[in-house]
UniProtKB/TrEMBL annotation:
Transmembrane segments: none annotated. Keywords: Hydrolase. This is Alpha/beta hydrolase. InterPro entries: AB_hydrolase_1, AB_hydrolase_fold.
Length: 257
């Protein structure tokens, strides 16, 4: 596998891991909130399975995360990151692409929908407005920093990461909480599989998505993995099976036309 650097239009350098595949098909990964390209190893496991199936794989750290350049973490920034990564993958000879995204990364993927992406698998996707108790997530000192400066630092706790902290803003929290489900669902143009854990922590997310799916013009399916937690990392075998079946159905071996 090769370590690569991808530069976005705004000049931010993204760190990534790329492995060539057979043919012209590739899978692009989009990690969750303040995570990195490994996504607590779930993406490493999934990437291996996709490579066995013949796909090239590209795992990237979003800007402000992992080994990528510093930046305030927002949906808009990560949308640009994902589109830049997709364009880079196309330049390497893989114009038929699928996205595998998790949690906040799934929201980014739905907003970004790069032109060469033909199907997506989204685990633990955020698809509608939710009321998050931020005072239970962040310390009083962090929230005071956000109030005074408009941004706050969040320590990086990803295993093996050399990054000290990521930076988020008021916009980041709004991106997380104020999601226009109708807007993103009505413009979802590619076949998309939504996968959730069956444990209580994913219940609200699952209900939101189930309620909104009739708005989506593209083929969609919702799968719940019994007993699994958010992101289904504890049942990654089930995710692999569901994802490979979905991509086998919806990702052609060559681009039509």
């Amino acid at each position: 596998m090769a370590e690569v650097t991808i530069t976005t239009p705004r000049g931010v350098r993204l760190a990534g891991t790329f492995e060539p595949g057979q043919g012209t098909r590739g899978v692009l990964f989009a990690h969750g909130f303040l995570s990195d390209r490994h996504s607590s190893l779930r993406f490493d496991i999934l990437a291996s399975a996709y490579r066995t199936a013949g796909f090239a794989t590209l795992q990237v750290d979003f800007s402000g995360c992992g080994a990528s350049d510093d930046a305030v973490v927002t949906v808009a920034g990560e949308v640009e990151d994902l589109r830049s990564a997709s364009a880079w993958l196309t330049e390497q000879g893989y114009p038929v692409q699928a996205v595998h995204a998790h949690s906040f990364g799934a929201l980014v993927a739905m907003h970004a929908q790069p032109a060469d992406v033909v199907a997506m698998v989204l685990t633990g996707a955020l698809t509608g407005p939710m009321n998050y108790p931020w005072d239970q997530v962040f310390s009083a000192a962090q929230l005071d920093e956000l109030e005074e400066h408009g941004v706050m630092r969040v320590p990086d706790d990803n295993a093996g990461s050399a990054r000290e902290f990521s930076v988020i803003s008021r916009q980041t929290l709004a991106d997380y909480s104020l999601i226009d489900q109708e807007a993103i669902f009505r413009r979802l143009r590619v076949p998309t599989l939504f996968v959730y854990g069956g444990a209580e922590e994913d219940a609200e997310l699952t209900a939101l998505t189930r309620e909104g799916l009739p708005l989506v013009p593209a083929p969609t399916r919702l799968e719940v993995v019994d007993g699994a937690r958010h992101g289904v990392r504890d049942r990654i075998d089930a995710v692999v099976e569901l994802a490979l079946d979905w991509f086998a159905e919806h990702v052609p071996h060559e681009r039509a036309g």
